[in-house]
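Cross-check.
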Amino acid sequence: MLESEDAAVPRKERLERAARGDAVAIDVRPALEYAHGHLSSAISMPVETLPARLGELSKE
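Predicted model, tokenized:
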């Protein structure tokens, strides 16, 4: 979801897409905060690790 029009996708639809595997939810909070609660489909990638970990994400 990098295109600007995706910014207008309602929250409910974003969650549904993530649950179906049609989108990826990336949780950029610190690992401790993620451990206290997160979307079931979210991937934990604390913001400070993003540059090194972006290669782990599918480009599809």
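The chain has three helices and two strands. The first strand starts at residue 25 and ends at 27. Passed to J.P. for a second look.
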